[in-house]
């Protein structure tokens, strides 16, 4: 079958599709092409909003490999997420924030917003919006990413 037959087989009767579109004497088609049939898959390329420098060690989303943070932005490895160990970062990329809500965490009351990967929409952890205890103020504006949602991606030899 030629490409025109595959693309139009579902729109025109078989005889008309063969005779009018694949004939060397057929008039050129005017207008948009018909939609691709179900057996043709058009895949979306993976593009991230931000790419981190290749010469630095970085962390990426374990589910889609979107860049998340440079190792230089890691503040602490001794945090606990809702599903296990987590890291505290100064800044992250390719993440979206949900609405802030007050939660009682291990270190007291905080206003936090869940964060998710912008590429695959997986919830990764949270952002500290506000700490209500003075000893916890250093966390404000920082990000928690749980270890089970990220991988070490570059320069970790």
Automatic annotation (TrEMBL):
Write the protein's name.
Protein yippee-like
User: What family classification does the UniProt entry report for this protein?
Assistant: Belongs to the yippee family.
Q: Give the superkingdom in one word.
A: Eukaryota
> GO molecular-function annotation terms?
metal ion binding
Q: Which PANTHER family match?
A: PROTEIN YIPPEE-LIKE CG15309-RELATED
Q: Where is the Yippee domain?
A: 57-154
Asked if Metal-binding is a keyword of the record, the answer is yes
One biological process term from GO is: positive regulation of cellular senescence
**Keywords, ordered alphabetically:** Metal-binding, Zinc
